[in-house]
Amino acid sequence: MSRCARLAELLTAEPDELAARTGSDLARHIRECPHCTTAARAMLAANDGFREVLEFPGRVDVDAVLRKAHTATTRSRPGRRAWFTVPAPARVVAATSLVAAFAVAVALKMHNQADKPLPNKQWTPLAEEQPVLVDAPGYNVAVIPTTNPDITIFWFFKENDDEQDVDLRGGPPAVGTDDAG
Amino acid sequence: MRAREGDDAALAELAKTSARFVRRWALVQMGDASEADDLTQDVLIRMIQNTDALPDPTRFAPWLYRVTRNAATDRFRRRARWRADADPDDLVSASAGPEADAAGGELMRLLHGLFRDLPRRQREVFDLVELQGIPANDVAVLLRIRPASVRANLFKARRNLRRRILSDHPELAEERP
Ligand SMILES: [Zn+2]
Fold it and tell me: What is the Å distance from ligand 1's center to A164 Cα?
């Protein structure tokens, strides 16, 4: 496997090139060179394996976490309501899930810090029609269908909510630009 | 009371959805399965107890990522404080965890070990860019580092992992048709 002079190029190549899916010179070479074909295949197989390792759900009992957290939450936050829900008629519930909203947020929205939503603008990530009207002056509203057909999340937030960023009052330390590791 | 129950149900949905993502991020940060589980629980509890602090949905995922990352940093710092007194043998006992017991057994353990051996920054850049396909510029904003730094870490991570794969585990080529 190590007998090709171009093998070093594979070490930092893009996955698409390793898969010989591009029209680049290296991709062409990988298609034609048995040594590099084998090496690229090993690298791509490793990526599949890494994904599998990382996607393993772990052993976190979310119900137990909720029970544990709920007591403290009820005790310490009787006031402001950041969340509430209404039972949603089946027709309101979009086929997509909160997971999809999450994935979209992760993939597309994480970078767009400058893209501030307009005041009182309804952010609708999933459902195209919104038959439920909610009056919440001064707040933006996100309507998020979930995998549970009985639950739709109505998320009220103010313009600069994200200014609080990671200030969790006794939670994790404030955001830094870099750190250990 | 009815509304309160609605709150709880919605929060439970959010926590369950978030758990999947947080757990992955936690594993990337900590490199160790059981530590990732602990960290995930911590982050979820903090999230649930601070619903007032949640940012709007368009910023929720990156916010939660940073909460997870900061919680990991906190753990590393605490660990550094007691590390001086610890038995060195205890420090290399990171568990491959249930991931390794899942399908693929030995192979998964091996890959987990390769991944864990990367520096933390390389692990997270490799996961976000290489494995999840998020553009390097977006990752730079998320991690609050320069795009060039993202690319440099990606470059190093690829080279580190692929070198070891080729030299130590060429049999991986047989795993993929
Ligand atoms: Zn070759």
Answer: 52
Count, in order, helices (H) and strands (E) of chain B: 8, 0
> 0.80 exceeded by the pTM?
no
* Radius of gyration of the CA atoms of chain A, in A: 24
Nearest CA in chain B to A173: B70
In terms of pLDDT, which residue wins out, A40 or A81?
A40
* ipTM for the complex shown: 0.84
Per CB-CB distance under 8 Å, the chain B contacts of A174 are: 70
| B104-177 maps to CATH 1.10.10.10 | yes
Q: Tally the C-alpha atoms within 13 A of residue B147's C-alpha that lie toward its C-beta.
A: 6
Res B160 pLDDT > 90: yes
- List the domain boundaries for chain A: 1-71, 125-181
Strands (E), B33-163: none
Report pLDDT for A79: 43
Contact residues, B window 3-62, toward A, CB-based 8 Å cutoff? 3, 6-21, 23-24, 27-29, 33-34, 36-37, 40-41, 43-46, 48-62
Q: Which fold would CATH assign to domain B1-95?
A: Rna Polymerase Sigma Factor; Chain: A (1.10.1740)
Instruction: Check if B94 contacts A (Cβ < 8 Å).
Output: no
Residue in the block written with tokens 């994790």? A172
Task: Please state, in angstroms and as integers, the Cα–Cα distance from residue B40 to each residue in A19, A38, A180, B13, B36, following that order.
Answer: 34, 38, 19, 16, 6
